[in-house]
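Appendix B, Record 12. Input sequence as logged:
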Amino acid sequence: MAPAYNSCRKLSKVNTMGRAEHIKCIAHTHADKIGVAWCGRRLVHEWAFVDIDHAVYTVEQKQRLVPCQACVAAICQILSNSES
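Logged structural output:
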């Protein structure tokens, strides 16, 4: 399996039920999109995952913070388009 597919599967399996206060967006790291999350939300003075790796590692370690499902969906959509 491709590494991108594995990361996408790990992120998309996150259960956010009952943990709404711990859901955080995943920030873009490209220079043209600094301050914007993958879901399109503007990030101003708030905590967000620094990048996709940060979100994946946090999920793998079963931490309290979970990635925004809209960010995960946007990332998975792009990754699935690149594999086809």
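The chain has a mean pLDDT of 82.
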